[in-house]
């Protein structure tokens, strides 16, 4: 008996929703916008975190870099009018070849592996026979440890060796996209390519690594350090250093030793602050996580404001529904319908409308997250947690919005309801 009554309530509720189609659609859209903002932002932030984590975890948790600047530029100093403090950006000198080379040669912390490299150009044209690329290839001059310290893996051939670097051999390791551009149907190993007029024999091809924020890591060529320095001769080239430590528990000690070593190379006295930065491979992940937390808060604030509006809208539509169906409620009560039965009918209506809004919001939110991931070349994954929150919030909105209208409907006097016109 109770099952058939519940089915009848569902049938009446769905019929009522269909009878107020325009208002239902508008309410569903309002709820959907709130859920869309939540799911869309959360899925976009999740895609950003996935990309950053995958890119930097490949470097290994035991790697740190020596850079001109860290993730945060320090400020300080006096200037301007007397008695007033003015912030100014601290200018660190570039990491010169002399400084970088001296560090790599002298830093010998147990179990360390030192990589040295620089970007010769990000806009290089590379040729093979009559085929040439657009001027968008990145050329990197590096020592033998660059590939392993940077998390690159080989698809074919071999990487740069210490012999290649010390003898300035004219060899190159190329990325997967560069291989596809120059050698679509040919094995690239031992073929000769031209970079800025210099000939290089291809000795290896890297596995595909993808792009990050528009930076294509597969459209590049890595050549021996000194050979690159003879081709790219601009002033003030900023060199990069990375150190890989075999044991994670020795990482902090290795960093401290690296700081002391590089301070000595820079000739800093004990009272001078560092004019360089040490950056661990997981520092950027932590910084992105901090930024992500603010984005998560923003997503919740935006969605809560929108959902608050949708709660009021849903409550209003249900109150209007109660008012319009006063006579119907009176007839049902006169025929023996209990107050709980009337209340249940209106609760079913609000829950159905809320879940339709959740469905619309989830579909739009996932699409927006996927679209953002595609535009910015991020690693998209289905935001199951965000979808769960979307369904849960829509259900809560329905319950909150339906309490007063359902209570009002269940308390209507059947005699007064039958007189209603």
Write a structural description.
The chain is α+β, with helices and mostly antiparallel strands and 421 residues long. It has 2 domains: 2-55 and 286-419, no CATH class; 75-280, no CATH class. The chain contains 13 helices and 16 strands. The chain has helices at residues 2-19, 21-57, 97-106, 146-149, 162-166, 176-182, 225-231, 251-266, 283-324, 326-334, 339-375, 384-410, 414-419; strands at 63-67, 75-78, 85-89, 112-124, 126-128, 131-132, 137-142, 154-157, 171-174, 192-195, 198-206, 211-212, 215-216, 220-224, 240-245, 277-280. The strands form 3 sheets. Strands 1, 4, 5, 6, 7, 8, 9, 10, 11, 14, 15 and 16 form a 12-stranded mixed sheet that branches. Strands 2-3 form a two-stranded antiparallel ribbon. A two-stranded antiparallel sheet has the order 12-13. A hairpin with a 2-residue loop joins β10 (192-195) and β11. α9 (283-324) packs parallel to α12 (384-410). It starts with a helix and ends with a helix. The model is unreliable at 73-88 (pLDDT under 50).
């Amino acid at each position: 008996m109770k099952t058939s009554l519940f089915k009848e309530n569902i049938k009446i509720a769905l019929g009522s929703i269909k009878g107020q189609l325009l208002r239902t659609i508008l309410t569903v859209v309002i709820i959907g916008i709130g859920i869309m903002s939540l799911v869309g932002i959360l899925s976009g932030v999740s895609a950003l975190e996935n990309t950053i984590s995958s890119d930097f975890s490949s470097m290994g948790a035991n790697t740190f870099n020596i850079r001109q600047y860290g993730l945060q530029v320090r400020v300080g100093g006096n200037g301007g009018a007397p008695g007033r403090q003015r912030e100014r950006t601290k200018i660190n000198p570039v990491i010169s070849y002399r400084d970088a080379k001296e560090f790599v040669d002298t830093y010998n912390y147990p179990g360390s592996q030192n990589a040295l490299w620089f970007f010769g150009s990000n806009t290089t044209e590379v040729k093979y026979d009559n085929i040439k690329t657009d001027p968008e290839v990145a050329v990197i001059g590096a020592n033998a440890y660059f590939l392993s310290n940077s998390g690159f893996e080989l698809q074919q051939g071999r990487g740069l060796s210490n012999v290649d670097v010390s003898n300035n051999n004219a060899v190159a390791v190329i990325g997967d996209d560069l291989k596809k551009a120059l050698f679509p149907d040919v094995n690239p190993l031992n073929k000769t390519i031209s970079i800025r007029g210099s000939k290089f024999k291809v000795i290896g091809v890297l596995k595909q690594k993808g792009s990050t924020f528009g930076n294509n890591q597969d459209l590049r060529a890595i050549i021996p350090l000194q050979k690159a320095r003879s081709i790219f001769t601009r002033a003030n080239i900023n060199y990069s250093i990375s150190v890989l430590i075999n044991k994670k528990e020795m990482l902090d000690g290795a960093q401290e030793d690296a700081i002391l070593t590089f301070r000595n190379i820079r000739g800093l006295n004990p009272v001078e602050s560092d004019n360089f930065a040490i950056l661990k491979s997981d520092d950027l992940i932590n910084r992105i996580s901090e930024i992500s937390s603010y984005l998560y808060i923003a997503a919740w604030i935006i969605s809560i404001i929108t959902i608050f509006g949708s709660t009021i809208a849903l409550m209003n539509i249900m109150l209007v529904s109660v008012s319009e169906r006063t006579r119907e409620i009176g007839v049902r009560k006169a025929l023996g319908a209990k107050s709980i039965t009337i209340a249940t009918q209106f609760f079913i209506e609000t829950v159905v409308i809320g879940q339709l809004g959740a469905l619309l919001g989830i579909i739009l939110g996932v699409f927006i997250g996927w679209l953002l991931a595609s535009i910015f070349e991020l690693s998209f994954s289905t935001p199951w947690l965000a979808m769960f929150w979307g369904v849960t919030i829509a259900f809560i909105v329905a319950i909150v919005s339906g309490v007063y209208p359902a209570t009002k409907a269940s308390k209507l006097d059947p005699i007064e309801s039958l007189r209603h016109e």
